Each structure stands twice: as structure tokens, then as C-alpha cells.
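B., you asked whether I could sanity-check this one before it goes into the benchmark set. Here's the sequence:
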Amino acid sequence: MLRDVMGKTFRLLGYTIQYGCIAHCAFEYLGGIVVCSGPSMEPTIQNSDIVFSENLSRHFYCIQKGDIVIAKSPNDPKSNICKRVIGLEGDKVCISSPSDFRKSHSYVPKGHVWLEGDNLRNSTDSRCYGPVPYGLIRGRICLKIWPLNDFGFLRASPNGHRFLDD
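And here's what the prediction gave me:
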């Protein structure tokens, strides 16, 4: 009887570990659900919107200009940020605020990206902390799930003029 109970307990423990490993791999490499907070991505993503973030793009270096990504905050590694990729390594980016009269530019260094929120007047982004290492990117947001009336793929940046072709 004790042997039977111990066998069932170890079998249950084995299944739990197996499924835990599968779940970890799914969330780490495939993607997951993210609840966004803060005004920096308005009007594209509102406070408390729920989105799906896929993680394969970062593993295969498929992040492109215009993508919205989840990244570890360069200022606080315990928190994540949601921003739009404005520049990739080697790209020329505008580093001044929209209200600045004189515009200044810089180049994104190798292994980094330039991230900005869509709400330029209310966003702490690369204009404050500089280029973000590619390794801090956790995933690319590809789908808005909630609210249901906004369900679907995300629209283009309202700040398309910030993308420089030089």
C-alpha cells in the first residue's frame, strides 16, 4: 500500500515537473500575454490593454523598425517597458524632444536599438536613457487582445515622421 502511494506521488511529481518545463519553454521562447500600463504608448496601446507578445523575433534577430517591443527597463531591471523601435544599429535617429527648436541626431551603436513611446510628450524612452541593448528585448507585440473592440494587429506609429531614412 505504501509503495503504491509513493509510486503515485512520484509519478504526479514527475508530470508536474514535465509540464512545468513545457510551460516555461512556451512562455520563454514562444510568447505570452502582457498587460500594458502607463500612458507612453497612447493612442496605440492604452493603459490596461492586454496584448500578445511573441518571443521568436528576438531570438532570430527579426526585430524591425516600427515594431512594438517589450524590453527590460535600462533604469530598473525589475520592470519591463513597452516601446516602439525607431532605430536599429547603424541608423540615424533624432535624439531631441518634439518641442525642441533645434533638432539633434545620433547613430544607434552596434548591438542596440532606439526605443520611443508613441506618446512623445509623456514617455520615458531612449531620448532619456539612450540606446537600449538588443539583449534587453523580451518580445515583440503582435496582437492586441483586450479591449475586444480593438482586437487585432497593431496599427502603424502616429509618429512615422520620426523614422529617418538617412
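One thing to flag: Residues 92 and 107 are 4 Å apart (CA to CA). Otherwise nothing jumped out at me.
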